[in-house]
Amino acid sequence: MQEPKLAELLTLEKLDEGFYRGKSWDLGFRALFGGQVMGQSLAAAQYTVAENLSCHSFHCYFILPGDVSAPVLYQVENVRDGRSFSTRRTKAIQHGKVIFDSMSSFQVQEKGMEHQTFQLPDDIPPPEDIEPDIKGMEHPDAKISMSLREKLIYHKPIDLRSVKSATNYKDAKRYTWMRLKEPVEHNNLMHQTALSYASDYHLLLTSLQPHGVSPNDKDLRLATIDHAVWFHYPLDFNEWHLYCVDSPSAGGARGYVRGQFFDRHGKLVASTTQEGLIRMVGDKAIKS
C-alpha cells in the first residue's frame, strides 16, 4: 500500500457553495481521529474567505464520534466579513448528524506590538538525536492495540519524535518534535490545517500520565470534548516544531490540557488548549 499523503486528506471536494466533502482515514482508533476533522473543517472555512486572510483562532466542539468508514460533509456558514476580519462557522456531518462544530476567525496580516513570555526549553535534545515514534510502534513488542498496529501507515505522514528524557509524568508534561514527513508547498493555509491535524496527537494523553493509566486500558473511555488553536505567526510545518504540552488540571472525568508550538528558532507560532473525557468504567470506575 502506498503511504497516504496528508495534503490529499486535507484537500476537500467542493459540492456546492459552502458545501465540501472530505475522505476519512482509519488510524486504528475507536472513532475518527479528531485531528482529521479539525484540519478538514479549517480547510473548508479557508475556501470561503479572501486569499489575503489567514486564520488566527479556531475553536472546536466534538459532538458525536466520527465513522472512519464514511466521508465527512462540511457545511460552512458565512457569519461575518469585515474590513480586517472574517468569521466562519463549520459543521461536520455524517449520516445526517452533526458530529463536530467549529468557529474560525481570519485576519489580514498586520503589524502590531509584539512580546513572548513562553520560551523554548533549553534542555531539549534536537529531533535528529531522537528516534521516530513510528519505529517504536512498529516493534513486535510494542504495547499497542492490534487495530492500531494494522493502521500504522496512516500515522506516518506526521514525523513524531517524543522527547522521553524530558517527559515528566508526575507533573503531566510532554514534549514532542513534529513536522510533515513529506514536504508540501509553502502555503500558510495548508500548513495551518496540517498543524491543526497534528495538534491532536498526544494531547489528551498527557492528562493520564500522573494517574498511571495506559491509553490502551480497556476500561478507559477517552474522547476529546473541545479543542482550540491560536495561530500567532505564519508557519512552515515542513520544518521541525516542538510541541510543549502540560495538563494543569483533571477532575469530573475530564482532563484539561494546553500546548505551545515553537519553531527551532524559539518563536511561539501557535498555542492550543483541549478538554476531554477521561473516564474509567467497570471495576476501575471512580466512585463518587
Describe the model.
- The longest helix is centred in the first third of the chain and has 13 residues, at 34-46.
- The chain has a 12-stranded antiparallel sheet with strand order 1-2-4-5-6-3-9-12-11-10-8-7, covered by helices on one side.
- By secondary structure, it is mainly β.
- A hairpin with a 2-residue loop joins strand 10 (241-251) and strand 11.
- It has helices at residues 6-9, 34-46, 133-138, 146-150, 188-198; strands at 13-16, 19-22, 53-62, 72-81, 85-94, 97-108, 158-162, 173-180, 220-231, 241-251, 254-263, 268-280.
- Helix 2 (34-46) runs antiparallel to helix 5 (188-198).
Summarize the structure.
The protein is mainly beta and 288 residues long. It is built from 5 helices and 12 strands.
| Secondary structure tally: strands | 12
What is the mean predicted local confidence, pLDDT? 92
* Shape descriptor: globular
Order of helices and strands: HEEHEEEEHHEEHEEEE
In the predicted model, the low-confidence regions spanning at least 5 consecutive residues are none
Rounded to the nearest angstrom, the distance between the terminal CA atoms is 49 Å
In DSSP terms (H or I, runs of 4 or more residues), the helix count works out at 5
Instruction: Tell me what the CATH architecture is.
Output: Beta Barrel
Strand content: 35-45%
Largest sheet: 12 strands, antiparallel
- Fraction of residues in helices? 10-25%
CATH topology: Porin
